[in-house]
Amino acid sequence: MGVAGDPGPARQERRPMTHRDTIQLTAIAAAALLLTACATTGTSTPAAAPAAPAAAQAPAGAASGAPGSPGATSPMTAARPPADPTAPKPFAEVSRDTKRQDGLFPILRKDEKVWLEIPRAMLNKPFLFTINISSSIGERGFYASQMGPDVMAEWRRIGNNIQLVALNTKFRGEGGGKRAVEEAFSPSLLAAGPVASADHPERKSFLVDAGLLLSDIPGMSTRLEMAYRLPYNVDRGNSYFESTRADAQLSTLNAKMHYFTPRIPAPPLVAPPVPVPTPPQATPDPRSMFMGFVFNFRALPEQAMSTRRADGRLGHFTESFTDLSDDSKPNPRVHYVNRWRLEKKDPNAALSEPVQPIVYWMDKNIPPKYRASVEAGILEWNKAFEKIGFKDAVVAKQQPDDADWDNMDASHASIRWFVGSDVGFAIGPSHVDPRSGEIMDADIGMSDVFARGGRSFIVEDAPRGVSSLGEEAQALAALNQGWREGRNATYCTYAQDAAAEMDFALDILEARGDIAPDSPEADAFIQARIKDVIMHEVGHTLGLKHNFKASTTVTQAQLKDKAYTDANGLSGSVMDYNAYNIPLEGEAPTSYNNTTLGSYDYWAIEYAYKQIPQAQEAAELGRIAAQNRVPGHAYADDADAGGFGPIDGMDPMINRFDLGDDPLAYYKKRLKLTQELWARVQNRKPEAGDDPLRQRRQLASGFSQLTRASELVGKYVGGMYTHRDVPGASVPAMRPVDPAKQREALRFLATGLFSADSFRFKPEFLTSLTTDYVEFNRAGFVSIPTAVARVQLSAMDRLLQPQTAIRLMELPNYVSASERKSVISINEVYGTLQSSIWSELKTGAEIDPLRRNLQREYLRRLQANLTRGGAASGQFADAYAVLRLHAVQLQSDLRAAQGKGSVETRAHVAESLDMLSSVLKATMTRT
Fold it and tell me: Taking 60 as the threshold, does the pLDDT of residue 15 lie above it?
């Protein structure tokens, strides 16, 4: 008989098992079970060895316990328990016939199936997980070529389940206490699923079905519901991976996700109080849509980049978090500047190429005729880097037309060209390493409307409305920028608003005959605009925030000097929202728009990117930041400018779209330019072949300018000039706007924007306003009173809002006793506003219909303020009392004016008196 495990001679026969043999084997098995129990419970028995991995088990078909068979074991060995049906299949079995792409996480594909290979060594090891939007539906904030969220994540294996977990980087214990912070603040689960295979015997890695990514990780269903108020969900069965790519630092999967809703509800029989948005209009069937997502797994650098603390005297995007490691710090917030890892090849050279330049790939969809302007906007930033010793720090490369790679992966910073049905904006977000603030990727999205729309507007064959983006769409686009708070979260509408600015400029220049369609001047105008927008958006991706005070660093005289504007531009920074520099009629033209970097841009790049030895960094950065008082270095961000939520912006020098060191003078100039445009439009007779909407657009273009000016003029009243500096600086952090300037702003509103004479149109012009009868959903009746009200109410609402009232009442606290006599009071503001709006009651003049509308709106605001619960208490109490006092005076003036003027005027006065009397008699719950 052969030895156990030896098959012995081939001719040997096996004898049948007897009853005695069965009894013996049963006894042996019982003894083995007893020994196993002792091994697992006893203290002196060696612990049982861990079970062998599935890949090392005997192959199927081998007799595990039969004597004389390959792999047979001794009769004294315990019988092997039955295989676990839930255990992962062998790696080789799952990966059979797959195509493999090696990379950070190797990708295996077979037909429609895709797997990620996860080395055990990569478990619980952080990486950067990002999602970009490669294709979308083309409306309401859902556009292609947009960067999505980014987060530091890791793979976690729990038994035979795998989890993709987003790590919580908002709260940290940088100097200690890491465990306490991790216990206090939870991470988030992004996706999970079963492990798809046992470990590979050599690589110690296992497979995961990449289908776990085909869920609503980006949260797009919520955003769709925000836009359309319809419940869209992911259809997993019709979602799939289009392509994949991997290298040593990156694994990328391009997915096509299907979102659907079972049905579109019927419209309500009665119109709801709040308008319901329409279902998607850009898809063939509003119940179904595909969106493309690029899922990126990007390796973090083994050595995190050295951090650089942000300074509030200038503006950079930051990686911000709360550091709870030291309870002795009064402020636990930490802010690291977002910047690329830029290092000199030759640290000792005054001018050196970088080890790795910042490369921007220009999308192959950019039309060839605009590529030179896009490239110029990118490379303009090399001027700032050369100042701090870098040669060719920024490089522009063109993606080949036949390229088979997508520049939305996480390893190609790019300028993406996209289209949409209602889109006209650019956006410049980035993804960063949260450990240090290092920018790892950036994809600027640029809408084709910048070029197509601008040229079409000169030709007058396209509606201006295509360049507008609603507030809801802006919110959706802002949501797409990331999960993490406070970094790169400001939504940039520069290109969208610059489109409206350009429309106005083109209308003026075309009406004057200074520019014609398809002329070299028209082409230069469009190309300059594209370069301007690209400079602004590239600045964002270099880490720079908006600077809405930069335009005030150029004087009104310099704006009229062509030599100055050609050399220095129109503003202290391309990061401002800079208006077009349109001369008044008869003035010589200079530069129309910004063409180069400003002084602030050089300063901000120096702070973020200058190479400084570690031992000298704190002192040198302090020296650089202390240059905030240098002319041209004025800085203020979105919150300073206000205009959203409860933030109203109190400094009249900090605005979007103004020019020069005197914004009020700029607004007065815009009124004159608007009146010139309207006069020229009315004097030009429509011609055969004109676009039917031409005159409407030119009319609306002027109203758009005045609506913005109206609100910004109101910022002077009760305004405060602000200055960013460190504590103890010699320049005050804030001071009231000069009383004379506040009164000048009130006079401009009274005599300019509140005057009906500013909005006179010839009857023959109004009767010539036609519509586009080819379109079914076409524009209707043009209402001049509605457009005028929009202009006037912007200023009125600003003057009557509680924030303005509170500041007006507190102004005396910010000046010396000798200056208090000249301070403008809330009584003066309310009195001036009311007397200018109701001036006809004193003069006995006929009340124009436009003025009657303004007066009715004033009464509605009186009613809201005088009957609102709680208005008569708290900080607004004194303002309430003064406002009521003026309301009583207005009641007296209305009584005295009864019975005078036309029927319409008499009826208006009687109605106004009745309404105001009811308001003054109304009871109010005082809290």
Answer: no
